[in-house]
Amino acid sequence: MSSDEAAKVDAILKAVRKEEGNKHCFVCHERGPQYVDVEHNVFVCTLCSGILREFSFRIKGLSMSTFSLAEAKALRGGNDEARKTLLQRFDGNAPVPGEKDRIREFINDTFVKKRYMPRSKGRAASDDIDPDTPPAKPKKPDAKPKAKPARPDSSDEEVEVCFSRVNARHG
Ligand SMILES: [Zn+2]
Question: How high is the pLDDT of residue 2?
C-alpha cells in the first residue's frame, strides 16, 4: 500500500470511529469498541470480538491491524448501517457487556442464522432455510440387484457373460 493510500485509510477509520453508532459495541453496547468484524463491518468490544472469532468470523483490531482501502471504505456506515439490515426484525433486549452466554446466542442468531434480517429484500431463497435443519442427504443409489440371477442352465454364451459380470460386481 502506498503512503498516500495508508493516509486515506487512516482518515476514513478516524472518521468512522467518530460516528455515534460506532462508539459502542454492535452486540453488547460496551463503550469504545476496539475491534471490527470485517465480514459484517461492525464495531465490537474485546469480549464480543473473541466470540465472533469462535464462529470463524474475520476480526481485526483497530489499533493493531492494517486495513486495506477497500476494508476501510466498507466500514463507512458501520454499526448503524448494519443494524438496519442485520437487526431489522430484532425487537428483544440485546445482551449487555459481560453476558457471555447471551452474547454467544445473540451472535449466533444475528450473524449465523440471520434471524433478524428482512425476509424478502434481495436475499436468496436459500438464506431463509433454517440452518438447524440438516440438509437432505442424497439418496444412496441402490446398487444391489433386486434378485439373484438364476444360475444359467444353458450353455448359451451370452447368459454366461452376463452372469460373470454380476459376480464380478459383487466380487
Ligand atoms: Zn460487546
Answer: 87
Residue 141: predicted pLDDT? 61
Please tell me the distance between residue 76's alpha carbon and the centre of ligand 1 in angstroms. 19
Ligand 1 centre distance from Cα of residue 23 (Å): 11
Q: How far is the CA of 100 from the centre of ligand 1 (A)?
A: 9
CB 61 within 8 A of CB 117: no
> Is residue 133 situated within a structural domain?
no
Write down the pLDDT at residue 125.
Answer: 47
Q: What is the CATH number of the domain that holds 58?
A: 1.10.220.150
Count of domains observed in the chain: 1
What's the CA gap between 47 and 93, in Å, rounded? Answer: 18
Considering the domain boundaries, does residue 114 fall inside one?
yes
- For the chain, which ranges sit under pLDDT 50? 121, 123, 125-129, 154, 162, 171
